[in-house]
Amino acid sequence: MPSAENTYSPLVFARNIGIVDSDVPGWLELSEYLLVNTPVVPAAPPPAPPRHRLSSDDRRRQLLSHAIALFSRHGFSGTRTKDIAAACGVSEAILYRHFATKEDLYHAILDTHEAAAGKDEWLAEMRAIAERRDDPEFIRCMFAQIVKSFREDTAFHRLMLYAGLEGHSLPGLFHERMGSSTLEFLRNYVVLRQREGAFRKGSPDVLMMLLASPALQYASSKYIFRLKTFLGTDKEAAEEFAKLLVAALAPAPKKKTSKRKV
Fold this sequence. Notes:
Layout: H1 4-7, H2 10-16, E1 29-30, E2 37-38, H3 56-74, H4 81-87, H5 92-98, H6 102-117, H7 119-132, H8 135-152, H9 154-165, H10 170-195, H11 204-224, H12 234-249
Antiparallel strand pairs: 1-2
């Protein structure tokens, strides 16, 4: 038989009439001696670990990486400096500390791409191939370099596409810094092979575009627009295009003149 103390305890009485429920998490404890509600206070969360502060060079690389990613997804008109700063968890003042003007940021983007592209090494290899007059290998090497750039630095080429569509100054900067010297080298090779009789006559500028355009179209389709227009590998594509271009550049056969009988 329960004791009178337990039967008429305020806590027991409160439970019996449904004022409190000890089975519900976070219920208010009712003192057995004082009718005072004592809330259960949850434990405070542990303090957050201290944030790691990046070095100046690492912060610059982080800002550049996020800038390229945002420009490639939203274009230049759709990306604000505050968006770049927010993506890195810093203020715009930090961004301007590393890049005082937009032009500084654009040149830094080109610096990053140029370093990753390995342009100097590629041109050295192309010059060695040109010395051997190995036209199929010359085309394969050029094709492979263009496709490699799109495959390994897709964000940059998406960014350049946005820049062209928006009338941005970056494509012009890119041409001045990297494109013009490469195009001059390709044009000189075309002119040389025309003089030697290996390439057909015609505008060297048009023939130079003929050499580069298939690689640009193939790489854009595959890595920018994600179209499966060719089921083979990039190397197999280079082989196929090299054969076609060598045939297209070959001099036109001379027409045979028939002698009339007198």
